[in-house]
Design a protein that fits this description.
The structure is a single chain. By secondary structure, this protein is an alpha/beta fold. Helix content is 33%, strand content 23%. It has two domains: 105 residues, Enolase-like, N-terminal domain (Enolase-like, domain 1), CATH 3.30.390.10; 199 residues, TIM Barrel. α1 packs across α3 and α5 runs parallel beside α6. It is globular, with a radius of gyration of 19 Å.
């Protein structure tokens, strides 16, 4: 094997309008792309640094630079787990190594991983946090979407969901409070959300304040996001949640994500596959987890002004597997 070359670059992709959750709004998706070249073949991976976890493009580029000598001298994906913590930087490198191996060997990612080949799948379509009236209008404009995910996080959340349900009566609904509720809000909201047909509530309480969930009735299943990152954190959340949201930027790549999906199944937890807001290059590796998931939320490219060339193909909310030109 010849010595590898590694490059890492920060990019910014404008969002269509703006995207708001309980912690604030953003108008661009800031990503870092890693390219690893060996024997004239290049594999790529994309990550999304997340300030909630203390990450920035600068910090992620620094982590990647620190790992450069290990990557260029042949470090494996399994070895990567031992030298870097879970998070965005490791995700970009790990996914680039998967892509590189697939392109060097001519095998599919699913074949290498020993999992089912992904097929077309329905992804959730996300409505960002806004007033009940504006979220209702957004729902009406997307009422043909079979599955919507609503960003919530405030006292008017029942009014928001009611407005969406009125304007999209046939759509299935899941919601994400992004740590924006209190236990009292949980107790008040959950029965009403069940009546509105909500199928999943994602991360209602702040991470670290989960224990109260063990004492609450769950008319709607509860999903861990910010509270659960990788296999090392799974034991902590199992008593309090029904589902876990697996995101590659949290697990630190597809390698750990596959281990986490298997472990979650062993604990009896349902799986949701989610994403940060990035391009199709960030979504493509996560499509490999589709066979594990009850809910798929990989709509990042649909929320951008434009996507990468040869990006994922969407027909409405039906997402098709990535082309080899994109990844894998």
């Amino acid at each position: 094997m010849s010595e590898r070359q590694l490059t890492a670059t920060a990019e910014s992709w404008p969002i269509r309008g703006s995207f708001r959750i309980s912690r604030g709004a953003k108008t661009a998706a800031d990503v870092v792309v890693v390219s690893i070249t060996e024997d004239g073949v290049t594999g790529r991976g994309e990550c999304v640094p997340y300030p909630r976890y203390g990450e920035s493009s600068k910090s992620v580029l620094g982590e990647i630079s620190a790992a450069r000598k290990f990557i260029t001298t042949g470090l494996t994906r399994e070895g990567l787990l031992s030298i870097m913590p879970s998070g965005a930087a490791r995700n970009a490198i790990d996914c680039a190594l998967w892509d590189l191996e697939a392109k060097l060997t001519g095998r599919s990612i699913a074949d290498i991983a020993g999992i089912a080949e992904p097929g077309p799948a329905i992804t959730a379509y996300t409505l960002s946090l806004d007033t009940p009236e504006k979220m209702g209008l957004a729902a009406k404009a997307n009422s043909d979407r079979p599955l919507m995910k609503l960003k919530l996080g405030g006292e008017q959340d029942i009014e928001r969901v009611t407005a969406v349900r009125s304007n999209a009566p046939k759509s299935r609904l899941i919601i994400d409070a992004n740590e924006g509720w209190t236990p009292d809000m949980m107790r008040s909201f959950c029965p009403k959300l069940a009546d509105l047909g909500v199928e999943l509530i994602e991360q209602p309480l702040p991470a670290g304040e989960d224990s109260v969930l063990a004492e609450m009735e769950r008319p709607v299943p509860i999903c861990a996001d910010e509270s659960a990152h990788d296999t090392a954190t799974l034991d902590e959340v199992t008593p309090y949640y029904d589902f876990i949201n697996i995101k590659l930027d949290k697990t630190g790549g597809l390698t750990e994500a596959l281990l986490l999906a298997e472990a979650a199944r062993g604990f009896g937890l349902g799986v949701m596959v989610g994403c940060m807001l990035g391009t199709s290059l960030a979504m493509a590796p996560a499509t490999m987890l589709g066979s594990f998931a009850r809910f798929i939320d990989l709509d990042g490219p649909l929320l951008l002004e434009k996507d990468r060339e040869q990006g994922l193909r969407f027909e409405g909310s039906v997402m098709h597997p990535p082309s080899r030109e994109l990844w894998g």
